[in-house]
Design brief:
Layout (H helix, E strand, L loop, with lengths): L1 E3 L5 H14 L11 H10 L3 E7 L2 E10 L8 E8 L8 H15 L4 E8 L3 H9 L3 E12 L3 E11 L1
Parallel strand pairs: 4-5
Antiparallel strand pairs: 1-2, 2-3, 3-4, 5-7, 6-7
């Protein structure tokens, strides 16, 4: 089940996002980001935040926010994280589908992922299955902890 996040979900969201941020292979955030900074990034700077539950536990989360102000405010951006225990079960795809529906309901006309690390091939495949296209590439934009400098992709789709 995917639902809007509540204030009481903060601990559960932190448990999901912390390992991914600490690993440092998919998000361009400081690997040592504090809990407070991470919550600000994930929750407070978002228009909406959602959690995915299984067996009464939060196993995934995503945010949805306006990508740019003014003339760019009709395009939204999302970020998704699935807990290690819930990976490989289609949850990221479910959250993507949910986010596309929510974005349309909120009046957005397009969704764009600004910084998809090229080594995150599983996510790229999911986004492409949901109609996203790579529309740009930023060479050596991400310093991957294992692979060194790798490209970041810009992915987009109309709603």
């Amino acid at each position: 089940m995917i639902r809007p996040a509540f204030a009481t979900d903060r601990d559960a969201i932190w448990k999901v996002i912390k390992p991914v941020f600490r690993e440092g292979t998919t998000y361009a955030v400081d690997r040592k980001i504090s809990r407070q900074q991470a919550m600000e990034y994930w929750l407070e700077s978002s228009r909406e935040c959602y959690v995915a539950e299984a067996g009464g536990n939060v196993v995934g989360t995503y945010y949805l926010r306006t990508n740019h102000a003014g003339g760019g405010s009709h395009v939204c951006n999302c970020g998704y994280i699935v807990s290690a225990a819930a990976r490989g079960k289609g949850l990221a795809s479910q959250m993507c589908k949910h986010s596309l529906s929510e974005a349309r309901a909120l009046g957005y006309r397009a969704m764009q992922f600004n910084f998809v690390v090229e080594t995150n091939t599983g996510a790229i495949a999911i986004w492409e299955r949901h109609g996203f296209e790579v529309i740009g590439r930023s060479p050596k934009a991400f310093d991957h902890p294992d692979r060194g400098l790798v490209d970041a992709l810009l992915m987009h789709r109309e709603l």
